[in-house]
Amino acid sequence: MDGEALNILLVEDNMDHAELIMRSFDDYRVANKIYHIIDGEEALDFLFRRGKYTDSKKSPAPHVILLDLRLPKIDGLDVLKEIKADEKLRRIPVVILTTSESEQDMAGAYDNHANSYLTKPVDFEKFTQLMNDFGFYWLGWNRKP
Q1: Angstrom distances, CA of residue 43 to CA of 19, 30, 83, 144
Q2: How confident is the model over 97-120, as a mean pLDDT?
Q3: Per-residue model confidence as pLDDT tens digits over 43-95
């Protein structure tokens, strides 16, 4: 990882999962900034700079979005649809990070142009390894458009 400051939008309503994810990223010692949002409506406000997010300094464009599917207010799949329908946002990689192993959920995510679909492991060590692998690929090796 080249040390470039990366903006990560984490849309996750489970505070325990969010904490694990943020701690995993801290371990990389990459100069990244995680913006944690807990519901779909606020995620769209952040991305479209509405409401309390009109200031671009408080809501910079993320380099990658980690999106849970089961969210309050607006479901993650609907958030994904709006992101990928917008010309300015569609190039931002959206990685679905969910507990759902449902084929229907996976197909729905990919049908709506998710860039990746990751299932959260229950085991702590496997979860940590998943976040480590995610970090290396999406934050290090992947090239941004």
Answers
A1: 18, 23, 10, 21
A2: 96
A3: 999 999 999 999 988 899 999 999 999 999 999 999 999 999 999 999 999 99
The DSSP secondary-structure symbol of 144 reads P
CA 35 to each of CA 22, 67, 100: distance values in angstroms, whole numbers, following the listed order? 10, 12, 23
How far is C-alpha 91 from the geometric centre of its chain's CA atoms?
Answer: 13
- DSSP letters, 12-57, are -S-HHHHHHHHHHHHHTT--EEEEEE-SHHHHHHHHHT-GGG-STT
Q: Which fold has domain 6-141?
A: Rossmann fold (3.40.50)
Give the tens place of pLDDT for each residue, 36-47: 999 999 999 999
Of 31, 25, 29, 24, nearest to 4 by C-alpha is 31
Q: What are the residue boundaries of the structural domains of the chain, listed by start?
A: 6-141
pLDDT for residue 132 is more than 90: no
Single pTM value for the model: 0.90
CA distances to 13, 64, 119 from 47, rounded to whole Å, are 17, 12, 24
